[in-house]
Amino acid sequence: MTKQQRWTSEQIPDQTGRVFVVTGANSGLGLATTRALARRGGHVILAVRDEGKGRRAVADITAEQPGASLEVRRLDLADLDSVRAFADELRTDHPRLDVLVNNAGVMAPPRSLSAQGHELQFACNHLGHFALTALLLDLLTAGRDPRVVTVSSVNHRQGRLHFDDLAGERTYGPMTFYNQSKFANAVFGAELHRRLTDAGSQVRSVLAHPGYTATNLQTSAPIGLWRVVFGRIGNPLFAQAPEQGALPQLYAATDPHVEGGQFIGPDGLAELRGGPTRVRLSPAAADAGTGRRLWELSERLTDVRFALPTAT
């Protein structure tokens, strides 16, 4: 994966017979990921909050790729009841899952709470994916070359966990709490790798980030000045297209050489653009004590426990 020999989606191995779940699959990075996986023969389950948008995404893909193997299922990651319902329904129709791509997210809204009363970004970006991964772990354990790909951000290096004010009741900043949620993604992916390894599981936990990619996260952000500067101005001038930004998570999901615990991001300046390569997880996110604390907190807040497999 050198700059002279950058990996592209054309190098994705044949995925025929493999089953993927991609959260937030109807737009941006999720749609680009879904399209690339379907092109290589994968069966992709689009986990989306708006089923109408999901069906339109399927129609767009199948118009380009007749015979693409796709299905749409509703999932609202900010509502833990929806996460449980999604997992239960998936289990009735699929005996196994090969790859879960924890891609969906919200960015920098005014302070609001999830259905269960958690700060929205922490709820959607982290807690929903934590619970989803736990509830689908048995299907992943039955999968072929199974992987969990959790999408973080270069912003995780600016984040920390506000354990004394997770809901932002005392001090809330939209980007500060976005950075917290992306830091939580990174901590979770690293801790999941440690626990899967200790359990002797064949499931791999891999992290990825897209760099600076033009998606509706920026253009739909409700903050006026930030939306203008980074969405309307920054995106056209500096951001890469979703098809390029999705390459790190596609590499993490499909390349046979990827190892559990790795963090894949762009190889360009400041990891903002470029082809996928292994990048550095911040020392704070890699800290085992922080991982243990977040894990225990997340189990308590979601009321979901991981039934970790044992070594055979």
Report on this model:
44% of the residues lie in helices and 12% in strands. With 312 residues, the chain is of the alpha/beta class. The protein has a single domain, classed as NAD(P)-binding Rossmann-like Domain (Rossmann fold), CATH 3.40.50. It has an eight-stranded mixed beta sheet with strand order 3-2-1-4-5-6-7-8, with helices on both faces. Strand 2, helix 2 (51-64) and strand 3 form a beta-alpha-beta unit. Helix 4 runs parallel beside helix 5 (174-198) and helix 5 packs across helix 11. The chain is globular. It starts with 18 loop residues before the first strand and ends in a 10-residue tail after the last helix.
Outline the secondary-structure elements.
Blueprint: E1 19-23, H1 28-39, E2 43-48, H2 51-64, E3 70-74, H3 80-93, E4 99-102, H4 120-141, E5 147-151, H5 174-198, E6 204-208, H6 216-219, H7 224-238, H8 242-245, H9 247-254, E7 263-266, E8 276-278, H10 283-286, H11 288-302
Helix pairs in contact: 3-4, 4-5, 4-11, 5-11
